[in-house]
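Dear support,

We are seeing what looks like truncated structure output for some complexes. This example has two components. We would appreciate it if you could run it in full and send us the complete C-alpha cell output so we can diff it against ours.
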Amino acid sequence: MSKYTLNVNGQSRSVDVAPDTPLLWVLRDHLDLVGTKFGCGVGQCGACSVHINGVSMRACMTAISTVGRKQITTIEGLDAAHSHPLQQAWCELDVPQCGYCQAGQIMTAAALLKDNPEPSDEDIDGAMANNLCRCATYLRIRAGIKRAAEIAKGGTGASASASPLATNKEAVK
Amino acid sequence: MSAPTLSTPIARRDFLKFSGVAGGGLVLGVYLRPVGSAFAADVAKPTAGGEFKPNAFIRIGTDNVVTLVSKQPEIGQGIKTSLPMIIAEQLEVNWKDVVIVQGDLDAAYGGQSAGGSRSTPNNYEAFNKLGATARTMLVEAAAQTWGVPASECNAMGTAVHHAASKRTLKYGELVAKAATLPVPDAAAVKLKDPKDYKLLGTRISGVDNPKIVSGKGLFGIDIKLPGMVYAIYEKCPVFGGKVVSANLDTIKALPGVKDAFVIEGAPAPLSGLMPGVAIVADSTWAAFSARKQLKVVWDEGKFANDSWDAFTAKATELSKKPAGATIHKDGDVAAGFASAAKTIEASYSYPFISHTSIEPQNCTAAFKDGAFEIWAPSQNPAAGQTAVMNQFSVPKEKVLVHLTRSGGGFGRRLSTDYVVEVAAIAHKLNGAPVKLTWSREDDMRHDQYRPGGFHYLKGGVDAAGKIVAWQNHFVTFGRMGTGRGGGAPSLQAVSGLDVEQFPAKFLTNYLGEQSMIECNIPTGPWRAPNNNVFSFVMQSFIDELAHAGGRDPLELRLELLSQKLGGNYNAERMSGVVKLVAEKADWNPKKFPRGKGQGIAFHFSHAGYIAQVAEVTVSKEGQVKVDRFVCACDVGSQIVNLSGAENQVEGSIVDGIGTAMFQELNLERGRMVQGNFDNYPMIRMPDAPTKIEVHFLKTNNTPTGLGEPAIPPVAPALANAIFAATGKRVRDFPFSRTDLRWS
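Here is the complete output from our reference environment:
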C-alpha cells in the first residue's frame, strides 16, 4: 500500500492504496465519487471517462501511481452547479435511457466542446466513437452536443424543437 | 388488513381494493442506510401537520408536495417517469409539484417485474384509477370545507377550485380533511376524458436525469454500506462445472483479502447458484487483483467438448432428416410446391449473443440475525427474493429487497443468479454487508444467452408471384430439464417456433417444423425474445419470395396480410402501420441508384404492431451506412410519455442494427470465447443512422409497452435494404460476416 494525495475536482484528497489501483476504483470505493462508472475495465466502453489535466481519459486504465498532482475532474466536478451546457442539454432533450454511460459521454463531449465549440456531425462521431451506449441513445447524444454548443454560445431559450427529432408527430387514425 | 403474499398474485380488482386503503403503505423497515445522498434522498419524510395517503402510491404533504412511488424496476425503459405520469394526470397535479421515489419490493404494490413490455398494459387502468380516486377525495374534502356540492368544484394544478365563489384550496391545505374521508370504490370513480389530458402524450424528461448527469449514485453498483466488503465470484468456464480444489490459502494471504471460500452450489439449473470460488476483500480492486492469482481445478463435466462449429455441422445434418416435431401445419406444402412456378430454398442462422447490459451484474447483501437485506439492480426482484428463500430455507419476511436503478436490463436481470450468489457470500460472512461485482468477462461468459438457431426454408410462388407454399425447419437447442409441469427429465427447447409466428395462418400451404440439438448453455430472454431472430428470418424470406416472383416487397406484404386464415394476429392493425410507414418513408424502391436501397419489414410482438423502412448506402467495398430509418408503431390508444416512447424506439432501432451487424459469441471447448468489448464489437456512434423517424398510429386498443416490439423488424428491414442496394442477400447474423462488395 502507498499513500497518494490527489487533486480531484479542485480538492486535495488523500488515499492509501496499492500503486496499481486504477483511478476508477479509487474514485468509486475510496472517495465515494460513484459517477465514474465501471463498464469493461479494459478501456473499451468509456463509462469511466474523466478529465486529467483537461483531457478525456479512461480512469479504468489509469494506475493511481501515474496520476501525481495532475488535475482530475469527474462528472461530480464538471460544473459546481451541475449546469454545464451539456448537463442542461441532456435534461432538456431527455437523452438518457438507463443513464449508466451518460456521465462518461458528457465528460468526453465536454472535452470535445472545449477544443471545438461548434463541432460538425463528423467531429462528434469521431470524438464520441470510444464511448459505448448500450441503450443506443446515440442520436440524442449527437443532438445533445449540438444543443449544448448552442447553449454555450448564449442560446439559453428552449431548443428549436422540443424533441431532437423534429419530424416526430403522433398520427391520429 | 393482511397484506397479500407474493406467492399468490394479486388480481387487478383486489390490487385496486387493497391499495385503495387510506394509510396503506410500506410494510417493511430499513435496517441499513446506504452511504451517499442519492439513496437517502429517496426516503421522503412526512410533513408537519400530517399527510394524505389514499393508497400505497400517493402521499401529499401539507407543503403541497406530491410524492408518488414508482413500483417497477427502472432499467432504462423510462417506467419511473411514465407510470407516475398516469397518476399525476388523473390526480390533476402540476408535474413540477411531483417527487418520485423508488419503491422497495413490497406486496402492497402488486407485481413488480419489468419484463415482456408488460409494465404499461398491466398497470395502465389501475394507475388511472389510483390517481382519480385520490383526486375525487380531494375534491370532496374541498366541497365539505366550503359547504358546496362536489359537482361544483373542479381539480386543476394541484388545487381544487370553486368557480362560482372564486375560491381555491391547494391540495396541501386539504390534507387533514381528505385523510379522514372514506376511500371511494374504484369502480365508481370517474376518469378524465382523454381529450382533456395535459400530461399524457407530451414529452417529459426522465425524472432521474438531473441525478444521472451530475453523477449521483443511483445504480446497484453505487451502493455502499457502513462496514461493507467487496467480493468476486469465479465460476467454471464450462457451464455447470464443479470445483475440485482451489489455492485458497495463497489467496487469503494476499493484500486486502479478508476471506476466500468455495461455494458448492449446484451444476443445474444454469440460472441458480452455480459452483464457484468467492474472494472477499476490502475493496473492489483488491478482490479483482487477488483473483488474478486464483487457481481452480474444475470438474468440467460432459459438455467440455461442445463447440459452435460442431453445432453448425449437426444442424446441417438434422436439416436433411425428418424434423423432430411439427409445430403448425396448414394445407399441403408438397402440393403447393408442385403447383409453384418458382421454388427457392435458403438457410438462415444466428449465433448465441450476450445481453451486455453496460452495468455488469452486481448485487449487495447483508445476512444478519437470520435475515437477508438485499440491494438488487434487478428486473424481477420477487424472483430474487424467492431464489434466496429457497436456497437458504428462510421465510419471505426474512428477505428484504431494495430496488435500485439498473444500468440496462434487456432481459438479463430477470435472472437471479447474481442475487443468489451474493446472498451465499453474505450468508457465509454472517454479518458484514458485501457487494458482489462481476467483471465484464464474467458478464459475457456467464450470461443467460440469446440462443443461436438455424432455419431451413423453402418457398414457392405461382406465375403471379403469389406465395403458394412455405416450409420452415427450425433447428434449435434443447437442454435436459423437467419443464414447467415437472415430470421426467427430457430435452426442452430453449427457443421454440410459435404456432402463430407470421406467416403461419396466412398461407394455404404452410409447414413449421422443429428439431433440437442438445446443449448445456444457459439461455434466457433477450429483448423481444425469439421475435428478434424469427422476424429476421421470416421477413427476409418474404422479401426473397417477392423478388423471386417479381413483386414489390410492400405490395406482396399487404397481399399476405389480406389473406388471414385464422388465429389471433390482428392483420388490420398491422396493415395500418405498414401503410403508414410506406407513406412516411416515401416507399419507392425503384428510385434508388445501385449502391443505395430501401427495405421494409414488419413484426408483431409484445402486443405492439411495428413496421419499418430502412434506407442504406453500401459502398463498393461493402461498407454499410444506414441513412434513414422510419418506424410506424401501433401500441394502442395513448402514448404515455412521448419522449420516452420515441427514445425506446430510436434505441431499439440502433440496438437492432448493432446486434444484426456485429454481434456473435463463439463456443469452443464448452466455453464462450469472447469476454469483452475488444472482441465483441458493439455499435458505436459512427454506425448509428443519420436519421430516425418515429410515428405512432393511435388505435382504439389498450396502451401497451415499447421496450421490446420495435427491435424485431430492424434486422430484416436492414437486410432487405442491403439486398435492394447490392443484390446481396444476408442470411446470417452478424451481417459483418457476409461479403457485401459489389461492382
